[in-house]
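Check out one such.
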Amino acid sequence: MWTDICQAFSSLVYRSSCRRGVAPQRLAALALAAAPLMVGAPGFYQTSAEDLALPLGQIIERVVCQHAPSQTYALYLPTTYSADRKWPILYVFEPGARGAEGVRLFRPAAERLGYIVAVSNNSHNGPSIISYTAMEAMWLDTHRRFSIDDRRVYTSGMSGGTQPATRLAIALGAGIIACAGPIQLPAVAKLDNKTFTWLGVAGDVDYNFDRNRDAVVDLSKRGVPARLVSFDGGHGWPPGDVLTRCMEWLELGAMRTARRPPDPAFIERMRQQGLARARPDRAESALRRGRGEREPSARVRRPRSRRSVRG
């Protein structure tokens, strides 16, 4: 598995570097940075005194990557975290390199569901090599420091941040929360993993809404579990409750694919919440149709056709 990880990172960086004309020496340096992954695998993470001092249940705005001090990330460790077992992790790519803001959005769900959240302070909209370098540094540092379940690696990004998030999720992850991204169908054309969970999120007046809808439709047609989540709003991060719902769907996906044991109480609670949302939605939908008004979409669902996605 660790060989696959190194090869995946090399491939990501190489393709990006070729497009940007990065010198071979830079490629060699990036390849060397991945070499520690092979040392002591699979249990190669090393907990230092510094790591033990990191507070639990708090937003840590700046963690310096040990092997690349120019790279930092914001971090959240749930209050129940310990190195005694492996934990799911969510890697987030914020388009403005606002790491703490990215952590803040996911913190409530991460605490309740038991996720580590890491958000790069370097990755931002712009040349892809910047994001891929930040991605590699954040991956290596978190895997050195923390006990991570590599069967449950997830990503998220907003706007341009969906591009590195998509690359990492498809190469090494189990799912993605892709928010308001300029998703191109060729970027997901090779994704045929039936154990993957794709959640496309966009505001109902976001200029990238159609691209996210089309990606979900395309993936669903090919049997990849995919949902479209929309909300009242434009281009930007969705409200926190929407992101919480998305992370709950990642949990259901992990249970469906045996990445984690099933939790009957959690499943029943999700079912009841879905029914509770559906009842007022149906009533309001009937009223809107009677008034001839456009119906907003604000729930997680699987698109069956172009019309059913938009509402």
User: Anything to note?
Assistant: The chain has one domain: 46-265+296-310. The first strand starts at residue 59 and ends at 65.
